[in-house]
Amino acid sequence: MTADEVVTELDQVVELIGGSPRAGQQAMARAVAEAFETGEHAVVQAGTGTGKSLAYLVPAAIHARSRGPVVVATATLALQRQLIERELPRLRAAGMETTWAVLKGRHNYLCRQRLGDAQEAQQSLEFEDSRRRGTLEEQAVAVHEWAQSTQTGDRDDLPIEVDARVWRSVSVSSAECVGESRCAFGEECFAARARMEAHESDIVVTNHAMLAIDAIESVPILPDYSAMVIDEAHELIDRITGA
């Protein structure tokens, strides 16, 4: 598909969500589409209000149809949520048959094995006075209740904010994980499900740190992809170095 055809489809999406064509957004979409087509790098700096997300998501979705998945890496969880909850649904609402998934580090997902261990530890506690049952214990109870119904196990889907200590008690890092094949809950692993869903999606939304982890781990984290978009690229060096 040519750059002009990409702009035409972009304009249709923008119109359907009540917007109007913007020259900067169209120019960016053309640049992204041409980079995808030629396999060359493109660096784009665009001001606030340009509509950057749709300017790369529309050509990414079109490219993925015939060439395979496109990875979109962001620096912040806030932008990830914006893409997943607002921008990508707009593409589907405009008639683009696009699938997507978000892929995060293992520690962002509930671990069923660790959850069981935490539950046993919690049940073994004896409170002499109910007033001793403080915020951390209340949060732990809320997490266990949420665990019974969650479909994702994603910390960001928790309806409440929980202390990092509470979340650590029900999650594991990659180094701590025994692996799906050796875990009693391997077939129910939330992190494994997220990775499988990502491998079957057109657009995979992840973060800068995962790019570093994928590069240094012996087992690939990201699916095979045909192109990559790095949003918030001014933060890439710090995020990669930190990972």
The CATH topology of the largest domain is Rossmann fold
* Helical percentage: 40-55%
Q: How would you state the average pLDDT, rounded?
A: 87
Strand segment count: 4
Count every helix, treating DSSP H or I runs of 4 or more residues as helices: 10
Percentage of residues in DSSP E strands: 5-15%
Low-confidence parts: 123-133
* Helix/strand class: alpha/beta
H/E series: HHHEHEHHHHEHEH
Overall number of domains:
2
Distance between the termini: 37 Å
Taken from the alpha-carbon principal axes, the silhouette is elongated
The CATH architecture name of the largest domain reads 3-Layer(aba) Sandwich
Q: What is the CATH class designation of the largest domain?
A: Alpha Beta
Question: Can you describe this structure in just a few lines?
Answer:
The protein has 243 residues and is of the alpha/beta class. It contains 10 helices and 4 strands, in the order αααβαβααααβαβα.
Describe the structure.
With 243 residues, this protein is an alpha/beta fold. The chain folds into 2 domains: 3-99 and 201-242, Rossmann fold, CATH 3.40.50; 109-187, no CATH class. It has 10 helices and 4 strands. It has helices at residues 3-16, 23-38, 52-67, 77-93, 112-124, 135-147, 164-168, 190-199, 208-216, 236-242; strands spanning 70-74, 100-102, 203-207, 227-230. The protein has a 4-stranded parallel beta sheet, sandwiched between helices. Helix 9 (208-216) crosses helix 10 (236-242). It is elongated. The two termini are 37 Å apart.
Features:
single chain; 243 residues; alpha/beta; Rossmann fold; 2 domains; 4-stranded parallel sheet; 4 strands; 49% helix
